[in-house]
UniProtKB/TrEMBL annotation, chain A:
Family classification: Belongs to the ABC transporter superfamily. Drug exporter-1 (DrugE1) (TC 3.A.1.105) family.
Taxonomy of the source species: Bacteria, Bacillati, Actinomycetota, Actinomycetes, Micromonosporales
Domain ABC transporter: 7-240
A GO term for molecular function: ATP binding
Membrane topology per record: Peripheral membrane protein
GO cellular component: plasma membrane
Pfam family, one: ABC_tran
Full protein name: ABC-2 type transport system ATP-binding protein
UniProt main location, coarse: membrane
InterPro entries in the record: AAA+_ATPase, ABC_transporter-like_ATP-bd, ABC_transporter-like_CS, ABC_transporter_ATP-binding, DrrA, DrrA1/2-like_C, P-loop_NTPase
Biological processes per GO annotation: daunorubicin transport; doxorubicin transport; response to antibiotic
Cellular compartments annotated: Cell membrane
TrEMBL record, chain B:
Domain ABC transmembrane type-2: 23-249
Molecular function terms from GO: ABC-type transporter activity
Name assigned to this protein: Transport permease protein
Superkingdom, natural source: Bacteria
Species of origin: Paractinoplanes atraurantiacus
GO terms classed as biological process: response to antibiotic
Cellular localisation: Cell membrane; Membrane
Family, as annotated: Belongs to the ABC-2 integral membrane protein family.
Keywords: Antibiotic resistance, Cell membrane, Membrane, Transmembrane, Transmembrane helix, Transport
InterPro entries referenced in this protein's UniProt entry, alphabetically: ABC2_TM, ABC2_TM_bact-type, ABC_2_transport, Nod_factor_ABC_transporter
A Pfam family annotated for this UniProt entry: ABC2_membrane
Length: 314, 251
């Protein structure tokens, strides 16, 4: 459904007199299958939005090729536009318009007739539980309601592929869960959904497949479960008083380890064998111990092993 | 035809939003009326003419051209607000005609300018201004071309600079010499030769002369067709350029 080869984009940014080239996207190869929810996971500035904007025909790539829903991005951007929907990270509604007006206009911009546009607006308003507010101005909506309008605007013309740039950022946990359901519903209706996110749990729970992006490059791709399986071994998380973290790290230097505010994580081959050793080492250094847990690697651990940094720190 | 359909979609939306905001209508009417009531009485002695009617014949066309220029040049601010809200990006991912994105907006500006012009003309009639209807319609055509051009320029510049902070000084810097060198508020008849020489290079000065000729009832004057032609050419150029800016990548 989406295939890209070597997609690149750099920006020239001016800071006073200095010109700096930012390589936002440095050669992205992707394959997204029909009917899946595909996720782009990466920290701020990874190049997720830039990639999406290129695929949505909003900015021209510096290099590389892409086919989206059977249309060639460079040769026929007009056809790509007809086949996709795009929801920007920053939203797209006008304060003084109502959701219904926005939806009808958007449908009509895609060439849909007036009566049909009204019908479609009615249907998506119901689908996204917006009927109650449909005729109120957008500026009166809550963040979550407004985000739902954004998504509804992106799919009103029933595209084959829809790009959602951070659909759940800024939503409370309950609205996020709702949004996930809506996104799954889009997949059930046959759409291919391409989302970006910097939430680990979102990538894990919602996406069929993900690519992890960092610094303009894809560092890993696969199903969330598959990616985690690639990291052999277990993670031992040792909870500690805040002031004991440094001492613990010192006592455990022989392990591959990450320190956090009130815990350290150790990557070990076999947790059951490692735990007694860890306890002994901490005891020998008289580090006060809080809790100890053993768990399978998370996507954050995947990111960590690929980049040497943690996503959580961002 | 797709262009027509898309243009009318954008135009209708913009019109609807404009009418929803009565403050604009009030400001748009109030300001010119103030000019007419408070500024015009100074004119008869200043212009050394014999009657109010004669003074208005010179002043009203100048005022209308002034409104067309300024009304147009400052439309870019609204577009920057739309850029910020993501509305423009949302339109640009659809297959809508890029020319329509511009024309729909500029035509709204033309329509609201003409509405203002009609109100002012009607008021001036009360003050003894007399103008022949076909001439008046041609004068409105001139105003429409001016405002089409200036609003397109303003939209194009807004898409390039993308911030109010840059747009405001830019437009002011353009508007000021244009205003001073066009003989808009007072005719340049009494200006020294060098000033008139510069004014000849100001396209708006031709537009003002043409509009004045029409209000004077001098349809045959060369000023009329020259003014219309210059404004038409510039309007087409401005629209073509600004539509290209709509098509280009913006962020
Ligand atoms: N128009 C631009 N001009 C200059 N630099 C830009 C521009 N757009 C993006 N960048 C830079 O490109 C890099 C990638 O940005 P991008 O918006 O794609 O990141 P992102 O992964 O979407 O991040 P976030 O999670 O914060 O949305 C950043 O360093 C950003 O500053
Ligand atoms: Mg982004």
């Amino acid at each position: 459904m989406i295939e890209t080869r070597g997609l690149r984009k750099s920006f020239i940014s001016r800071q006073g007199r200095d010109k700096k080239t930012v390589e936002a996207v440095r050669g992205v190869d992707l394959e997204v299958a029909e009917g899946e929810i595909f996720g782009f996971l990466g920290p701020n500035g990874a190049g997720k939005t830039t990639t999406l904007r290129m695929l949505a025909t909003l900015i021209e790539p510096d290099g590389g090729t892409a086919t989206i829903a059977g249309a060639d991005l460079l040769a026929d951007p007009g056809e790509v536009r007809r086949r996709i929907g795009y929801v920007a990270q920053g939203g797209s509604t006008w304060d003084d318009s109502t959701a219904r007006e926005e939806l009808v206009l958007q449908a009509r911009l895609y060439g849909i007739g007036k009566a049909d546009a009204l019908r479609r607006a009615e249907r998506v308003l119901e689908g996204f539980q917006l009927s109650e507010y449909a005729d109120r101005k957008c500026k009166t909506y809550s963040g979550g309601q407004r985000r739902r309008v954004d998504i509804a605007l992106g799919i009103i013309h029933e595209p084959k592929v829809v790009f959602l740039d951070e659909p759940t950022t800024g939503l409370d946990p309950q609205s996020r869960a709702h949004m996930w359901d809506e996104i799954r519903r889009l997949r059930a209706e046959g759409m291919t959904v391409f989302i970006t996110t910097h939430y680990l749990d979102e990538a894990d729970a919602l996406c069929d497949r993900i690519s992890i992006m960092d610094n303009g490059e894809i560092v890993a791709s696969g199903t969330p479960a598959g990616l985690k399986r690639e990291i052999s071994g277990d993670v031992v998380r040792v909870g500690l008083p805040v002031d004991a973290v440094a001492a613990a790290a010192q006592a455990l230097t022989s392990y591959k380890l990450e320190t956090y505010e009130d815990n350290v994580r150790l990557y070990v081959e076999d947790g059951a064998v490692a735990i007694p050793q860890i306890l002994r080492a901490l005891d020998a250094a008289s580090v006060p111990l809080g809790t100890i847990e053993l768990h399978r690697p998370s996507l954050d651990d995947v990111f960590l092993t690929k980049t040497g940094r943690s996503l959580r720190e961002n | 035809m797709k262009l027509l359909r898309d243009t009318s979609l954008i135009f209708n939306r913009q019109m609807q939003l404009l009418l929803r905001n009565p403050v604009w209508i009030f400001v748009g009417v109030f300001q010119p009326v103030m000019y007419l009531l408070l500024f015009a009485p100074l004119l008869k002695p200043a212009l050394q003419v014999n009657s109010n009617a004669e003074a208005y014949e010179i002043f009203v066309p100048g005022l209308l051209v002034l409104l067309a220029i300024f009304g147009g040049l400052f439309q870019g601010f609204g577009l920057i607000a739309e850029l910020r809200a993501g509305v423009i990006e949302r339109s640009r991912v659809t297959p809508v005609s890029r020319l329509a994105l511009l024309l729909g907006r500029s035509l709204r500006d033309v329509v609201s300018l003409i509405a203002q012009a009609v109100i002012i003309t009607l008021l001036a009639l009360v003050f003894d201004l007399r103008v022949f209807l076909p001439n008046l319609l041609l004068a409105y055509l001139m105003l429409a071309l001016i405002s089409l051009m200036t609003s397109a320029v303003s939209y194009g510049v807004a898409l390039v600079v993308k911030s109010e902070d840059a747009l405001a000084p830019l437009m002011n810097t353009v508007a000021q010499p244009v205003l001073l060198l066009s003989g808009i508020l007072l005719p340049l008849t009494f200006a020294p030769g060098w000033l008139q020489g510069i004014a000849d290079w100001n396209p708006f000065s031709w537009a003002v002369n043409g509009t004045r000729a029409l209000f004077r009832g001098d349809l045959g004057s060369a000023d009329v067709w020259q003014g219309l032609l210059i404004m038409a050419v510039l309007a087409v150029a401005a629209v073509a350029w600004a539509a290209r800016e709509f098509a280009r990548s913006v962020r």
